[in-house]
Amino acid sequence: MSEGPILHLYKYGRKTELHTNSCKQGFGAILLQEAEDGKLHPVYYMSKKTNTAEEKYDSYELEVLAIINALKKFRVYLLGQHFKIVTDCSAFQKTMQKKELITRIARWALQLEEFDYETEHRAGSRMKHVDALSRYPVIMSSAFTSKLFNDYCDEENIQHLQIATGVPRGNGQVERIHRTLIPVLTKLSLDDSTKWYKYVDGLQRILNSTISRSTKWAPFELLVGIKMRNKEDILFKDLLLEEMAKELLEQREFLRNDAKRTSKPCSLKIERRITEEEKESFVIQRR
């Protein structure tokens, strides 16, 4: 992750591989694509901690669940093209070909059917790159503000942006998106507000495929170069457009009020000047 080959932008149609691994503590996955140099380069990293129920699964179920979670995460990149799943679970391919499966595995097998993939078994000793993602904890400490880390960023020409905790305006671009998403998620989860997270993926796809007023392009098209293959949810899109229209009206009202406020001193100066000119004219007429 810290040495070459480094992270590359995704390009549709290139040779693509999905490497996955799991353990009792979590899942790890890397989406890779072949670049012009003929080497596989990482496009996206994924790491997720297992919950209490998943920790009780056996190793095979955890490996399958790692693949399912990775496919959900990278769905917009993998749907509609052939790719290879690389795993250290030798039983995965044989099990998926069985006619009778336990309920949980059968349910996961159905989710795999919408993808065009082949599988490859690879020894665990050759899967250390994803094994690290499933086991290694994320460091959230002063290490990212140390002189050593700052020197590293300078050497690698990395722009490290830091924001103040508890100050939303310090991360304005992200908070600007949150301002749009939160009201929509609130409306979608009216029946049960604790289930708002179920709508995030669908809403994110709609947002990424919606044309921006400023760029005149959808964010997904700017990143990948093609239109997103997306089964639109009309409710999601209507709520999102409604919220965007509301924000546009609020922004227009704010600008108008600001224009009135800034122009008021100038108007007062003009009024005083006119009053003084009228007084001078009155004095001249009396003379």
UniProtKB/TrEMBL annotation:
Key word Nucleotidyltransferase present: yes
Pfam families for this protein: RT_RNaseH
Key words of the record: Endonuclease, Hydrolase, Nuclease, Nucleotidyltransferase, RNA-directed DNA polymerase, Transferase
Coiled coil (UniProt feature): none
Gene Ontology terms describing biological process: DNA integration
Statement: the UniProt record of this protein carries the keyword Transcription regulation: no
GO CC annotations on file: DNA polymerase complex
GO molecular function: endonuclease activity; hydrolase activity; nucleic acid binding; RNA-directed DNA polymerase activity
Residue stretches making up the Integrase catalytic domain: 52-227
Name used for this protein in its record: Retrovirus-related Pol polyprotein from transposon 17.6
SUPFAM superfamilies (alphabetical): DNA/RNA polymerases (SSF56672), Ribonuclease H-like (SSF53098)
Gene3D superfamilies: 3.10.20.370, Ribonuclease H-like superfamily/Ribonuclease H
